[in-house]
Amino acid sequence: QDRYRELMRVSHQWRDLKHRKWFGFGHDSEQVPGQGGLAIFCPACPQPGINLPPDWRTQYSSDTVMRQYVVDGKFTAQHMKMNKPELDVSLSDGKGYMVSEAPHQAHLQQSLDNRERSTCSNHRAVNAANINKSNLQSTGISATACARHGCFVPHSVVDFQKGERYMNMDYSICNALDYHSQSIQKALVIYDVGCQWSINFQSQVKSSSSLLLPPGLEIIPAVGKFHLAAHKLSCFPRYSLNFVKGAGHLDGEILETLWAPFNKISPTARSMTQAHRQEVYDDHMRDSNWKKIVGIVPSLLKKYKTSNKCFEEMNQAYKELTAVLDPSKVTQWESDALEAERERGEALDIYLLKGDKAPTMGEVQLKLMKNPPSSSANLGSVAWLAEGISIEDAQDQLRSELRRLPSLMSTRQEVKVSEKRQRLSVDDVVTAQDDPAFLGQDDVEDEVEDEREFWEDDDEDWEAAGEEGDLAVEVMSIWMPSSIGTTKLTELGLHALVKEEMELRIGQANDCLDQLQTDLGNKAMLYRQNFQNAGSTREGTRTKKEIQKVVSQINKHARSYQRSRQAILQLEPADCIREKYQEILPQDLGVSKDVTEENRFGQGTSKMAWFWMMDGEQGQLTSDSRGLVEEFYRINWLKARARRDRWKEELSLVRHEMLWSTLWFESQKNRWEKRAEQSLEPGTEAYANKQMGLWGDFAKKARLMFQGKQIDCT
C-alpha cells in the first residue's frame, strides 16, 4: 500500500518538532513561537538587548549602529496554483523567514497598485511589475538580508503575485526594519531601484495600517554598485554607497550570491503546496544563515586585514593630494562635503563634474560657420572639411562590411558589393574635394601623406575594384589638412584650415567617445542581464546576436575615434590636447568586471578606461584651463576624501562587529544556561548543556581570535 502521504505528513511534523527544539521551545513549552521565532539571524549586526553593551545609546553614534539591509527579488522561485488550497495545513506559517500568509494577503488587498513605470533604471525590477501568469500563485519571491554579512532577515521574505511591485517590497522592508531594532535611529536600505522606490515609501507607510516602522527611524535609500551603472547620471551621487556616511565599504550586491542555491530547489518547490514550499525555503535560508554564523570569525578577520591595508593606502593618497592644494579651497570643499553628508539629496550633486557636455561635431561645425576662427578663413572650408570626414566614415563602413565577406564571394555578394561601391563612387570621393577655390590642387597633390586610413586594416590585402592599377573607392585617400601637413599649408597661407579641422576632429572624437560609453554600457547590460541569465539556448543565441550588433557599433566608433585622433596628432596639437585624447586599447573595450563579476575581490583598486572620465568640460579643451584644472582637483579631492572615509568606517565597523559577534555568542550561551537551570527532565537539561557548550565554544574562539583587534567593551 502506498504510504507516501503518511510519510510526508510525518516528515512535516518531525521538521517542526526539530525546529522548536533547536530554538528552545521544547524547554519553554508554555511559549509559542512568534513571527520569525524559528529563525536565526546575524551575530555581527547590531541588535539591542542581544549583542550591544548596556550603554550603547551613549557609547555609539547613530552611524555606527545603523542597520544595513539589501533587498532583491528572485523570479525563478515561482509557485503554481494549488488545486485544493483548503486542504493545506501549515505548522510554522510566519515563524521562519517567509512572512505569515494571511496578514500579507490582507496588506495587498488594502494597498493601491500604482503600476508605476521606472523613469530611470534599465533593469527589470519595476518594468516587470505588471507581469501576470494565470497558472502561477506567485511569480517569485523577495527577500531582505543584511548587506554586510548576507544573513536573511527573519519574517521578511514575501511572494510576488504580478512581478516586483512596491507593495510587496514595502511589506518585506518594514518587517525587516522592525526586527530587533529597538531605539536604532538610522537604516540603510539598498534596492535595485531605490531612487524610484524611496519617492513614495514614507507616504505609503503613513497611509497603511499594515506597514509599521520603528518611531524616529531615518531611512537612507541606496542602489547597489552594479545596478547603479544602469541609472541616470543624477542617481550616481545621490544613491551611491560611496557617499553614504557610516556605510563602510560594501557593494550592496551580496543578496545576488545568496540566490544561487535557490536555482537548484526552485524547480522542485514550484509545484509544492504553499505550506510545504514555505517550510522548504525556510530550511534553506536557515541553513544559509547557519553557515554565515560558522564562518563569521574568519570572515571578520579577513575583512580586518583588508580594511586596515586599504585605509592606510587611501589615507596616504588623500594626504598627498591635500598637500598640493590651496588650503582655502580644501576648507571650502570640506565644508561642502560635510553639508552634503548632512542634507543628502541634491546636496550630493557636488560629486558630479560641473560643466556642459563636450561639444559634438555638429555643434563645432555650426560654431565655426557662424564664427570663423580667423579673418583668413576660406569660404566653404568648414563644409568641405566636414564632407571629407563624412566620406571617411562611409569608406570605413564599406570596408567593415567587406571584411565580413568570404574571400571567394558568390555572384549575389559581388553584385551587392558593386552596388555599395557605386553608391560611394569614385566621383563622390573626388568631386567632394576636387578643386576647391581656396586649395591649389597642383601645389598639394604630391604632399598627401595619409596612412591613417589603413591603421585597422594592416592584415588585409585589398584588391583593385576597377581597371588595373585603380584603387577601390573604400581605400582611396582623402585630401585633408591633416594628410597634407601643417608646414605645406602654412607655406600656402592655408593655416586657418588647420584650426578648423582641429576643432572638427575634436568634435568627432567627442561624438565617438560618447557613443562608445553608451554602446559599452548596453553591451555590459545585455551580457549580465540577458546572456548570463538566459533560460534557454534559443534565448541565449538571440541575446548573443544582439551583443554582436552592439560590438559591431563599438568597433565602428573606436575606428572613427582612432582616425580622428590620428588626424589631431598630425595637426600638431597642444600638449594638453595630445594628453587628453589618448589611444584606445583593445582592453578598454571589454565588458566591465564590475558588471559581470560584481562580487569579485579587489574592486577598490580596479580602474575604468580613461575615456569614462571624459565628461563635461573635461572634453572642452579650448575652455579656460585654470577653471578646468580646479574642477578636476575638486572632484578628485572629494572622491579621495570619500574613499578614505569609507575605508576608515569599514575598519571601525569590522572592529565593532568582532565585539558584537562575541557578545551574540555569549547571549546564546547564557540563554541555554538559563534553560538548563530551569529544566525538570534529565533529557532537556542534557540538551541545554550541550547547546550551552556549543555557543560557549563559539564565544571562546571569537575572543581568542579577535584579541587585540576588536573594540574594547568599556
TrEMBL record:
Superkingdom field: Eukaryota
InterPro entries in the record: KDZ
Pfam families the UniProt entry points to: KDZ
Protein name: CxC2-like cysteine cluster KDZ transposase-associated domain-containing protein
Organism for this UniProt entry: Pisolithus tinctorius Marx 270
